UniProtKB/TrEMBL annotation:
<keyword id="KW-0012">Acyltransferase</keyword>
<dbReference type="InterPro" id="IPR042122">
    <property type="entry name" value="Ser_AcTrfase_N_sf"/>
</dbReference>
<dbReference type="GO" id="GO:0009001">
    <property type="term" value="F:serine O-acetyltransferase activity"/>
</dbReference>
<dbReference type="InterPro" id="IPR045304">
    <property type="entry name" value="LbH_SAT"/>
</dbReference>
<dbReference type="GO" id="GO:0008652">
    <property type="term" value="P:amino acid biosynthetic process"/>
</dbReference>
<protein>
    <submittedName>
        <fullName>Serine acetyltransferase</fullName>
        <ecNumber>2.3.1.30</ecNumber>
    </submittedName>
</protein>
<keyword id="KW-0028">Amino-acid biosynthesis</keyword>
<dbReference type="InterPro" id="IPR053376">
    <property type="entry name" value="Serine_acetyltransferase"/>
</dbReference>
<keyword id="KW-0808">Transferase</keyword>
<dbReference type="InterPro" id="IPR011004">
    <property type="entry name" value="Trimer_LpxA-like_sf"/>
</dbReference>
């Protein structure tokens, strides 16, 4: 029986040798660890929302010591993953100085980031009549978790750290169903109502006081290819959404040159590939819904009932 297993192993080993780039035999030593990044996301939420995430804090007097311990633990967890991430992409070992520079920048931004998140929470409270308290939003709204992790990851993305930012947003995507690329630039007071199925691309720029509903896609329209037929990387591929825009469920806005003007409203199920000026209302005029009493409907259908 073992000879069946041996053949399978031999075939797999052959692909391991031939298919470079998809197999890291020593992955634990050369690539950032997904469990470590997942744990870092959990720790970051406990730092940004103490008392809501992580271990409970019994007394306010514990907060300074607990916060210091959490920052130290996060530093210890992230540093080796940053070093591996830099080495995996650059092909050479990264220095401690490089990792410390990124971490110093990152930790210096957390206080300001927390202020941005409170603006997002306020937007959720003002934008959702079913929200009864800020506590409910922090504890139970998936969008806040997804936006928090994206804003965290965006800091690292801005500092040109590879792999780790995308791993962070994918952790949030798996938990919330909201897929926001770490490269997306998002203004203040951002709210995603319900959120499931929302996709926001890498080069998307979103203004302040923007509200999205579930199923909204801010994506790319098409991809340019080189002479060999390969997709060109980079470039502006995703739309801009200006201040005070609302986009209703299951609408799609595509293209790097597409701009949704300020204070505009995009109705549900719209497919948009061109810019709209400020103060626009976009909807499908041809869609009409007829509502009639059931008895009248049956009568038209020839039913005796």
């Amino acid at each position: 029986m073992d000879h069946h297993f041996t053949r399978a192993v031999d075939d797999l080993l052959l692909t391991y040798r031939e298919n470079g780039g998809i197999n890291y035999v020593e992955a634990a030593a050369t690539l950032p660890s997904r469990p470590a990044i997942d744990a870092a996301c959990v720790e970051l939420l406990s730092i940004l929302f103490p008392g809501f995430h992580g271990e409970p804090i019994v007394h306010a007097g514990e907060l300074p010591e607990v916060t210091l311990c959490r920052i130290k633990a996060l530093h210890a967890r992230l540093k080796p993953e940053i070093l591996k991430s830099l080495a995996a992409v650059n092909g050479v070992a990264a220095s401690d100085e490089q990792a410390e520079e990124i971490l110093d920048f990152f930790f210096s931004q957390l206080a300001g980031l927390r202020e941005k998140l409170w603006a997002d929470i306020d937007a959720a409270y003002e934008g959702d009549p079913s929200a009864h308290s800020f506590e409910e939003i922090i504890l139970a709204y998936p969008a806040i978790e997804a936006i928090a992790i994206q804003r965290i990851a965006h800091l690292l993305y801005q500092h040109n750290l590879p792999l780790v930012p995308r791993m962070m947003t994918e952790w949030a995507h798996g938990r919330t169903g909201i897929d926001i690329h770490p490269g997306a630039t998002i203004g203040s007071h951002f709210f995603i109502d319900h959120g499931t199925g929302v996709v926001i691309g890498e080069t998307c720029v979103i203004g302040s006081h923007v509200k999205l509903y579930h199923g909204v896609t801010l994506g790319a329209r098409s991809f340019q290819k080189d002479d060999q037929g390969h997709i060109r990387k980079g470039g502006k591929r995703h739309p801009n959404v200006e201040d005070h825009v609302t986009i209703y469920p299951n609408s799609t806005v595509l293209g790097g040159e597409t701009v949704v003007g300020a204070r505009s409203t995009i109705g549900g199920n719209v497919f948009l590939t061109e810019s709209v000026p400020p103060d626009s209302l976009v909807y499908y005029a041809a869609k009409q819904i007829a509502i009639v009493p059931k008895r009248e409907r049956h009568a038209h259908a020839g039913s005796k009932f």
